[in-house]
Amino acid sequence: MPLTSITIIIAPYHVGLYDHRVGGGPLRIMSHGIDKELSKLAPVSFINIGPVDEFEGEIGRTFEILRRISNAVSKAVSNNSFPLVLSGNCYASTATMAGLNQARPTSSTAKIGVLWLDAHDDLDTPSTHENGYLDAMAASMMTGTSWHTLMKTVPGHQPVDVKRMIYCGLRDVSEIQRKTVKDAGIDVIWGDANKKVDFTSALAETLDRRDDIQEAHIHFDLDVLDDSLGRVNEFPSPGGFLPKDVMGLMDMIPTKINPTSLVVCSFNPRLEGGDTVARLACQAIYRLVSGLQEKGILTANSEEKGYSSGV
């Protein structure tokens, strides 16, 4: 059955602090009118994740946001709506997978893949982590290798098989992190600061080979963008996506798999190039959701056209 609407879930927090650092990203993206553009494709509704100030510290606040995003995604999916999560932190994808599990039979969610578009692997655990940035553990939370007891409090959480992840744009990693990814046997399209990578073709070839993945959650960490476009957050790096890559990927992905959900995250709009990044994020979102409509996954709302990407 086709999806009939879009639900924008807004979580403007960095480790539970409202509009702090990357917590400002969702608000900046919304200020560029993404909801109005998406309403040209299908009806749009909103779920706002409320303040979590009463919870204990970074960890307590973070896990309450995980629980709330999971419930919001579950509600959207149960209403036959495509969940678009605008989040400060990457752990929104962990919560989104849990929300899909809440709303769908285990037999179907066990087959969902995760396309992780990111400069970083986010597979750190408390035992391997080096710099204190909690969000560097988002993927390990999702795959069941960290924070086991607290993850049990997230409704619908079931560890995702790490081999069902596919990285694209990965590059800003330590030797320990690179070894972790390699040892896990995960498919990776690496970014490269020294030569241009054709990310779209490489990911398309990987998806063609991975016939075990027919649908996937899309994780779009905006620091996957090349640092020439601006400082997306405090961890920019060369060798990433240019606008042509972003649009090519968002065009291609719905032709290869059925996207179940989209998280856009990890964007601090107060650094250099904030509005440039926000515009590109909006164009990317619109392009992916347009692809859902073209494939018949999302029912059409009108013949109006939205963003022109200019690339």
TrEMBL record:
Q: Which InterPro entries match?
A: Ureohydrolase, Ureohydrolase_dom_sf
One of the Pfam families matching this protein, by short name: Arginase
Gene3D superfamilies tied to this protein: Ureohydrolase domain
Classification via SUPFAM superfamilies: Arginase/deacetylase
Which PROSITE patterns is this protein grouped with?
Answer: ARGINASE_2
Q: State any GO CC term.
A: nucleus
Q: Which UniProt keywords apply?
A: Hydrolase, Manganese, Metal-binding
Q: Name the family the entry cites.
A: Belongs to the arginase family.
Q: Which PANTHER family match?
A: ARGINASE
Name this protein carries in UniProt: Arginase
Which species does the entry assign this protein to? Fusarium oxysporum f. sp. lycopersici (strain 4287 / CBS 123668 / FGSC 9935 / NRRL 34936)
Upper lineage is: Eukaryota, Fungi, Dikarya, Ascomycota, Pezizomycotina
